[in-house]
């Protein structure tokens, strides 16, 4: 069984690959760059990737609401992949505590993006969390 943390990382990598490389969904869902052990189940990262793709309009709308004087198309692609995964989880996976989702996304931003990106990711996701709680 793959850890959820590793699954989130794979999902972000897949979403990034789809966004910048125009790699077909069927290909990215096999995670060809990942050398997995025989017993690893990749259903969690697949669920995240498929969910983001299916709900991308709603996910992107929630992200855009949090961007002040900024357009979603100007975001760094890796930051956008992290945000999409995080917003999808906040909106469509209520069984996962929102703080866990945000913390995991912040850690991914620290690992995969620029030095300041984690603050931006935290702020956007916290804003989305608050927005969803108001509904």
Short summary:
With 135 residues, this protein is mainly alpha-helical. The chain has seven helices and no strands. It has a single domain, classed as NusB-like (N-utilizing Substance Protein B Homolog, Chain A).
Question: What would CATH call the homologous superfamily?
Answer: NusB-like
- The counted number of beta strands is 0
- The CATH class designation is Mainly Alpha
Q: Kindly state the mean pLDDT as a whole number?
A: 92
Return the CATH architecture.
Answer: Orthogonal Bundle
Termini separation: 35 Å
Shape: globular
Low-confidence stretches: none
Q: Biggest β-sheet: count, sense, barrel?
A: none
Description:
The protein is globular, with a radius of gyration of 14 Å. The termini are far apart. The chain contains 7 helices and no strands. It has one domain (4-134): N-utilizing Substance Protein B Homolog, Chain A. The protein is mainly α and 135 residues long.
List the helices and strands and how they pair.
Blueprint: H1 4-21, H2 25-28, H3 43-54, H4 56-66, H5 77-92, H6 98-112, H7 117-134
Helix pairs in contact: 1-3, 1-5, 3-5, 4-5, 4-7, 5-6, 5-7, 6-7
Looking at this protein, list some descriptive labels.
135 residues; mainly alpha; N-utilizing Substance Protein B Homolog, Chain A
